[in-house]
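re: that chain from earlier
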Amino acid sequence: MNKTSIFLAVIVIILAAPVLQAEEFKSPEAFTEYIYANYAEENFEEVFNNFAAELKRIITVEDYLGFQQQNFKKYKLEYQEIEVSAAEEIDFEKIKDKFDYAQDFGDYYQLQVSYLLKFDHFGQREERSEKKVYIRKINADYQLFWDYQSAFNDDQDQTGAGQDE
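^ sequence. v structure.
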């Protein structure tokens, strides 16, 4: 192999590394941090790709992307200082109470996420917010649950707080 081939091989490995890293997480906290980092960077498709499988059968990626892009643009949303609490393992009944679409398989976790939310709603504002996040682990994969009904059906003017992911 010549130097050019070795250089190209190294570049391919470096570029593929983030894709490989995105598929395996060592903990529910690491997965949640990854989701919120992508959300804050407006990588909504990556967030959608990590939704629970049964949720992806209910809403389309186009609907989710449109909803999030509209909210971020309308309110000029910025998520900063994101902190994720330790995960608490919960039983399926707690998930089913909150997400009627959930199917019973895997291990379930609840985490608390806090962040500074900056937005424009009748002027620039910022507020500290907290949100409970619910995820599932199946084998080595984590999946996110999202309350799409309250987000899509809310007729009130929102800043986006509490409707993220």
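The radius of gyration is 18 Å.
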